[in-house]
């Protein structure tokens, strides 16, 4: 049928002109080959090396047309089929990242999404895929990103995902950081007021806590780490450093309450308002000295009237207050029991020295090193610009341990004279020295009262009273 068609007058005319035969596709390859073998058709645009005489099927004897099976040369068929299979689709030859980039950059083929440059210039030095080199094409398929190793990662994984995954693997021992964060915080036991309801003997709790009520005491008190009572000398429990932040916050609250107290006394009042006179003045006294010299015990003895059952190293600062009456005036003595250990005080120091009215230097009479540290404590006061006229006293503690005393009284007295301070030797532990401890702080209170520091003075007589401004006369616009 094919030869019949090809030998028609139209086909011959086309052949004579040597032009392409548009309807040849309807014949199929077999028909074309038959026609060519019969010499009836010349295909000008068909490469001769692909359709040559040797590929054409031999005419069977008797001039019969070969069967369909014979008409299709097997070699040509296989090669054509293999070429069709090996010729990549343009998208097939692109790597994943290139595909993603081409999507983002509007479909530019083979371009990096980062710089819009050809992928080859980004470090992927492979040439564009060639249809005739299947090995190279395979390489190109395996190469996804120049920075990633050629591992057996699934193609669907984004490179970034692999980089950001490692939380568990990175932490040694298989613990993730989140589990580290969820470690239980150290237990902190709040210091409760001593029996009787208040810290001091004055009855009521500290003024700066009065607004909170008694139920707020444990929250407002400073925490100390739970633990057994430590032995009298060296091995003391180590408090938790994380409590320092809480202590610092407390110290600032104390300061602001002190400043509020000063303000309410009328001495510091930036605004032109009239404030009622304060009911009682507050004196801030800081107690400083080496760790373990007995600062906590001394302040506790004065405010609670007894030796504490157990003590731990102070973190930052402990506050105690006692109200006393001197010459008919009620004043409050606020004792700041500071930490002796450097690591528990360094971030608190600026709070200690603000608005200080008096300083108590304490050393341990059974420990010469604590006495030798006194000059450094005095120096620290100087560095924090403590006024030279602020009352200071020197206290040697633990005089009950007579057999262990290392610091002779005359040496201590000489030092005190050098620095113009009165010297007291006492014991916070010995109940017989109770009056002595009391006398130390009461002396200070008397001195402070007579000292009449500017900040704590009563409101001046020329206090400005706010007068209501005269209202403007009503104007009716209607
Ligand atoms: N024998 C005797 N021991 C005392 C006396 N005062 C304190 N201690 C003991 O000395 C140790 C330390 O007392 P603290 O009051 O905690 O010392 P501190 O100076 O406050 O120490 P830090 O808080 O670390 O600055 C405790 O074991 C007390 O029991 C005292 O007068 N006599």
Automatic annotation (TrEMBL):
Composition-biased stretches (Low complexity): 91-103
Cofactor(s) recorded in Swiss-Prot or TrEMBL: Mg(2+)
Keyword Hydrolase: yes
Reaction catalysis annotation: GTP + H2O = GDP + phosphate + H(+)
Entry GO terms, CC: Golgi apparatus
A Pfam family this chain is assigned to: Ras
Record-level Gene Ontology MF annotations: G protein activity; GTP binding
EC number: 3.6.5.2
Top-level enzyme category: hydrolase
Annotated compartments: Endomembrane system
Alphabetical keyword list: GTP-binding, Hydrolase, Lipoprotein, Membrane, Methylation, Nucleotide-binding, Prenylation
CDD domains the UniProt entry points to: Rab33B_Rab33A (cd04115)
Membrane topology: Lipid-anchor
Region annotation (Disordered) ranges: 80-173
UniProt biased composition (Basic residues): 135-147
Gene3D superfamilies referenced in this protein's UniProt entry, alphabetically: P-loop containing nucleotide triphosphate hydrolases (3.40.50.300)
Alphabetical GO biological process terms: Rab protein signal transduction
Matching InterPro entries: P-loop_NTPase, Rab33A/B, Small_GTP-bd, Small_GTPase
Family membership noted in the UniProt record: Belongs to the small GTPase superfamily. Rab family.
Protein's name in the database: small monomeric GTPase
